[in-house]
Amino acid sequence: MVVPSLCSLISFTIDFSYFGGAETLPRNIDKRSPRRTVVVARSEKDDGGSYPGPPLDPADFLWMMTEEPHRSRRTAIMKAHPEVTKLMGYEPLTKYVVLGVVSLQVCIAIYLRHTHPLSWTFLAMAYIVGGTANHNLFLAIHEITHNLAFRGVSANKALAVFANLPIGLPYAAAFKRYHLEHHKHLGEDGIDTDLPTRFELLCLNNVLGKTFFATFQIFFYALRPTFVRAQTLTKWHFINVVAQAIFDYILVRTFGVRPLLYLLFSSFFAGSLHPCAGHFIAEHYVWDGLDQETYSYYGPLNWLAYNVGYHNEHHDFPSIPWTRLPALRTLAPEFYDNLPSHPSWPMVIINFIRDKEVGMFARAKRLAKASQFTGTVPSAILHSGSSETSN
């Protein structure tokens, strides 16, 4: 039972129905860790230092009954700033960056063909240079998925297959469909494969489990979609697999297996405990008791990551390329400066692992639209609803 004085203190601003009821508040709420997110435009509603809401219930995901926020904010921005359409369109620079990074990775891989894979030189190069470069290619494919490198769709798909080569394993074609669903159906259970499954919630909801998840993120994001939502294969899936197989074969046949191991190590580090990999957790995990599903990061690591840190901006306008996302924020500061953001990607990983208030449960989910029409409701929703009713 919550202390009455505490209830009266925070009931002015907190809608307990959002958090599943007052019973989710722990007794040691006054001993919470420092706030992890920051806000530029501070207000009475959010001073940037206090917690806007109580901790989430670690036993379940945060189930939302509202529409995802980006559609409505996009409409509001276009009404307030109709000139935003001038920022939309493809970015010719992207293909040159991709060419440079692919060339860099292939050259380093060949250079290390005589270096032992478990030597400090090999591992350091794979982590520092290779991890950063392949992470850049992950996000190049993300950018190309939105058809922002060329005017034509086929040219974008071909560039994505090319950018995939140093990653070592084919995934660009499959990623496109899953990622577009992530945008169109943000947070929808069973459709948005970016969301952790209930199995992950049950098995990884502790420090050890979160450490395992953060270390092997790349495998979760690669394998989870195949279990949640299978895809219909297309000719581009076939092209992606064949192109990757030919590239890997020629590389191993000509220079031995070590160059390919360098590329695979680089991909693993890129999605593991790497400074840039903090964006995987930073983007959509719920922090600080906020009713916010997407978070941005405006720090210097954006220079290495196609400005993916401007993630609210990207979800609001997926048709604006990476080079113009800062201009979007400058154009509409009244829409973005009041949104809490992350000051550091590396600290996101550390705080995710060590904080009890954030974990696999800290994701906002909503019913898929088909479930809304058919009346199919997850048991977790029914349980949460019944607990609220009893209060």
TrEMBL record:
GO MF term set: sphingolipid delta-4 desaturase activity
Catalytic activity annotation: an N-acylsphinganine + 2 Fe(II)-[cytochrome b5] + O2 + 2 H(+) = an N-acylsphing-4-enine + 2 Fe(III)-[cytochrome b5] + 2 H2O
Record membrane topology: Multi-pass membrane protein
Localization annotation: Membrane
Major subcellular location class: membrane
Signal sequence residues: none
Cited CDD domains: Delta4-sphingolipid-FADS-like
This protein's record includes keyword Membrane: yes
EC number: 1.14.19.17
Keywords assigned by UniProt, alphabetized: Lipid metabolism, Membrane, Oxidoreductase, Sphingolipid metabolism, Transmembrane, Transmembrane helix
Transmembrane parts of this sequence: 96-114, 120-141
Pathway: Lipid metabolism; sphingolipid metabolism
PANTHER family given in the database record: SPHINGOLIPID DELTA 4 DESATURASE/C-4 HYDROXYLASE PROTEIN DES2 (PTHR12879), SPHINGOLIPID DELTA(4)-DESATURASE DES1 (PTHR12879:SF8)
This protein's name: Sphingolipid delta(4)-desaturase
Natural source organism: Pisolithus microcarpus 441
